[in-house]
Amino acid sequence: MLPNNKKIYFASDQHFGAPTPEASFPREQKFVAWLDEVKKDAEAIFLLGDLFDFWFEYKTVVPKGFVRVLGKLAEIRDSGIPIYFFVGNHDLWMNDYFQKELNIPVYLDNEEFTFGGKTFLIGHGDGKGPGDKGYKRMKKVFVHPISKWIYRWLHPDIGMKLAQYLSVKNKLISGSEDVKFLGEENEWLVQYSKRKLETKHYNYLIFGHRHLPMIISVGENSEYVNLGDWIGYFTYGVFDGEKLELKTFGN
Question: Which of 59, 119, 142, 202 has the fewest CB atoms within 10 Å of its CB?
Fold first, then answer.
């Protein structure tokens, strides 16, 4: 059990800023309301990537906007509640802003955690499993230090506008696909989870990226969990010390 009836919360794929800052603002307000709700009994909060539709940190400049979300995260973290952030494919170019300004650790890949005697493997999920070779090649280019160095020389107004255009328009860059269940044998994160279980047991393997909320048994006492998104589903995961469930905020 978790102490004092506390809970662990998980959310992913908010994509704030898409398709425009104005259009995403109501979603940002809803997410802030969710943070206000869960902070009442949160033992920890996990954000599994793509919080923003695009994020790039110059040495002295960060993207304009998202003040309410960033302020709320700072408030919650300052209250003593741990927050963990996992980089997604839309916020690949994070450096140390979250660590220095918000005291929130940032993870670039999967990480293991244990809560209430249960083991968790947690990550965003992009570039994992079989297939998707085009995106995997492009990701290697994006994360290369030379690519980031070249991009940094663009004026922020130009760089941000270009990135926002590509993020919305280019499916290879965004990793977006039709949000429909492909069947267990074709869900590549399901296959990835089963392969991970061949070498180590996890009770929960939790990812985002697919934008489709689902919980699938992948082994004895092991479940693959995809958190859905905050674009059409407004779903999140909650672990009460005994089991993990997906819930919809506002329902």
Answer: 59
> For residue 75, which of 45, 113, 52, 51 has the smallest C-alpha distance?
45
pTM: 0.89
Residue keyed to tokens 């328009």? 169
pLDDT in tens, 50-96: 999 888 787 787 888 899 999 999 999 999 999 999 998 888 778 89
Residue bearing tokens 């070498």: 199
CA atoms lying within 13 Å on the CB side of residue 158:
5
Q: Which residues contact 42 (CB under 8 A, 6 or more apart)?
A: 6, 7, 8, 9, 76, 81
CATH architecture of 3-248: 4-Layer Sandwich (3.60)
Asked whether 39 and 74 are in contact (CB, 8 A), the reply is: no
Q: Which helix H or strand E contains 224, and what residues bound it?
A: strand 222-226
Burial class (CB in 10 A: 0-12, 13-18, 19+), 40: exposed
Contact 9, 238 (CB under 8 A): yes
What strands, in cross-sheet order, belong to the sheet with 106-107? 106-107, 83-86, 42-47, 7-11, 235-239, 244-248
DSSP secondary structure string, 27-49? HHHHHHHHHHHHTTTEEEEEE-S
